[in-house]
Hints:
The chain is mainly α. It has four helices and no strands.
Amino acid sequence: MFVLEYKVKPKPNQIEAINEAIRTTQFVRNKVLRYWMDNPGVGKTELFRYNTALRKEFKFVDDLNSHACQTAVERTLRA
């Protein structure tokens, strides 16, 4: 993995948007992990379907980019 690091001076609304995206991603990861733990034998496809259901159920999850939601599910699968 290639990591590029630099210092920025973000505006307060940018900081809030970044923090909200991080919280939403953690929420999705936790919900998917809980679903996986409660339902043994659930596969990758079912977890992605559950992610879609979360997007329909919670508006703030739907506001997050769909690719970011899918990445949260994939990270949960790797854990």
